[in-house]
Amino acid sequence: MAKIALGSGQKTVASFEDAIHMTGFGKFNLFVIITCGGCLMCVILETMCMSFIIPAAQCDLNLNLSEKGLLSSISFFGVVSSSHLWGFLADTRGRKMVLVQSLLCSSVLSFACCLVPWSWLFILLRFFNGFFIGGCSAVIYAYAGEFHDQNFRPKTIAWMTTFVAFGNMFLPSLAWAILPQQWSYNIPFMNITFKPWRLLLIIYALPSLVVAACLIVLPESPKYLLTQGRYKEALEILKTMYKFNFNKQADDYPVSDILWDELDNSDEVKKRSLLVSMWRQTVPLFKKPFLIKTLMFCSLQFLIFFSSAGIVMWYPEILNEMSQFSANSSERVSLCRAMAYDDDDYFEFPDQYRSLFVFKGRVCKDLVKPEVFQTSLLVGSAYACMFVLVGALIGFVGKKKLLVSFLTVCTACGLASQFVYGYTLIQMLIGVFTLCGAAIGLINAFVVDLYPTQIRGMALAVSLMFGRFGAMTGSNLIGPLLYHFCDYVFFVVAANSLVVVILVLLLPSMPHIPRLKETITH
Predict the structure, then answer these.
(1) Are 71 and 123 in contact (CB under 8 A)?
(2) From CA 310, how far away is CA 433, in angstroms rounded?
């Protein structure tokens, strides 16, 4: 396809990369970063809030152990089941449309959850909540990245993912403020008692409405518009960015023509059926020259999610076991001794897979221990510091070196936790290891750099779908490993990290994006 020149003005003719560079970096970009970061925070709030809701709601909803386990992971199932669809819609219908609808629908479903009296309906609604919030999980990276040039794109994504840490801090902070309250209001016609946990669900959903309103104000991605043949709209958006960043008139923008040499197949896409279009959108990812990259990124996401989510999910459990061991034993506390410790008076639970939140005897307990809030808040704060550090260093060190160094330090701390003694030291070492989840943002920055615009959303969606599979797998395997094969847990995790480091080293240092038209035979 020949290069396309937009417009016929007398100003500079530039490629899109040069044109976006000329818009500068200022107030407009900061608003994009804050809004997109807020979107990521909403994903965390909607997918992770059940860790605090379940123990407080288990008596009202009559949750048994299997239902609590299902409820803990059902949002991730929803995210995984919808990732492919949202990736397709983002690449063919628009990034902004997907993001706004995802946030609005997920918040409405959360509001509905707070009025549900039955566990089966609550679980079903949480599945659909995950289904819709999955639209934000991957699409937001492509949307944010396409407002920036190659210099600012990795930094933008790194700074944006800082809001993941804010979400992890926001969750326990609100829960700590609301759940300990003892008030309740009976609503007979709905057959529910409105308690603090129901109010907490509403508050967790409110940020989604705020972020959706901000996204409505923002324009569509200019790069996406170019792929759809909407050249004039794209140029107007670039002028708006220039206007806000430089406090000048939009007409002062020095570009009147945009050179665009990526494939424009918008008319063909509109003529296809949904399933055919989704298939056509996915196939290029698994063909040369993208096949190896796609397999590598899917593997990286799976492995990093496996380690980070698996340990994070069991971190409060580990702390609880060590605390009980310290209180009831004269021996020095170590990780595996604590996990092997069994006090029959502590948990009246016939299965050896114990949980922080269980039914003691026949009495339903719905009080959440303050230690859980404190630990979660501490980990969230550490995440925030780590994301800020990554955002500050990525421009100087580079994505690849930073990622390898980061994973090496985290893995070393995890391994060391198995060989040291002392509650505080073990808590700190495992806490540092949990920060390896911050590597996910760096992997997403690689994906944004290495795929063309037309399939970038799908590439992120597919790779993150494998990541969610990794999270579910890790959450279910790490627990039994801790209780049965504790001495080998972090060796498994270290081997996992070694594979990740090798794959990262094989990634290209400088982005080279093949033109999509070379990969598809029509």
Answers:
(1) yes
(2) 11
**Alpha carbons 138 and 79: distance in angstroms, whole number:** 10
Q: What b/e sequence results for 378-395 when a residue is b if at least 16 CB atoms lie within 10 Å of its CB, and e otherwise?
A: ebbebbbebbebbbebbe
96: closest CA among 157, 10, 6, 35? Answer: 35
| pLDDT in the model for residue 522 | 37
CA–CA separation, 463 vs 83, rounded Å? 9
- In this structure, what token pair is assigned to residue 43? 């994903």
pLDDT of res. 513 = 52
> Phi, psi at residue 259, to the nearest 5°?
-85, 125
Bridge partners for 407 per DSSP: none
Written as six digits, the tokens of 154 are 């990795």
Q: What is the pLDDT of residue 514?
A: 58
Query: 479 near 353, Cβ under 8 Å?
Result: yes
Of the candidates 78, 37, 182, 60, the one whose C-alpha atom is nearest the C-alpha of residue 465 is 78
Residues in the chain: 522
Window from 57-61, 126-130, 348-352 with minimum mean pLDDT: 348-352
> CA-CA distance, 257 to 376, in Å (whole number)?
51
Instruction: State the Cα–Cα distance between residues 129 and 235, nearest whole angstrom.
Output: 36
pLDDT interval class at 201 (50, 70, 90): very high
| Closest CA relative to residue 227, chosen from 457, 522, 459 | 457
What pTM, to 2 d.p., does this model score?
0.72
What tokens appear for 155 in the block?
Answer: 């930094």
How many angstroms separate the CA atoms of 460 and 297, rounded? 9
Peptide bond into 289 cis (omega under 30): yes
Q: What is the pLDDT of residue 345?
A: 38
Task: Tell me the DSSP string of 48-101.
Answer: HTHHHHHHHHTTTTT--HHHHHHHHHHHHHHHHHHHHHHHHHHHHT-HHHHHHH
Assigned token pair, 382? 């550490």
Domain boundaries, the chain: 4-341+367-509
Is 244 in a helix, a strand, or coil? helix
Tell me if residue 13 falls in helix, strand or coil.
Answer: strand
pLDDT digits (tens, 9 = 90+) for 419-456: 888 877 888 888 888 888 878 878 888 887 888 877 87
In angstroms, rounded to a whole number, what is the distance separating the alpha carbons of residues 116 and 128?
14
CA distance 394 to 154: 7
Check whether domain 4-341+367-509 has CATH 3.40.50.1820, yes or no: no
- In the numeric block, the tokens 């076991």 are attached to 321
SS (H, E, C) 300-315: HHHHHHHHHHHHHHHH
In angstroms, the first-to-last Cα distance of the chain is 14
What distance in Å separates the CA atoms of residue 442 and residue 304, rounded to the nearest whole number? 11
Phi and psi at residue 49, to the nearest 5°? -65, -20
Please report which helix (H) or strand (E) contains residue 494, including its range: helix 489-506
Sign of the CA dihedral running 100, 104, 109, 114: positive
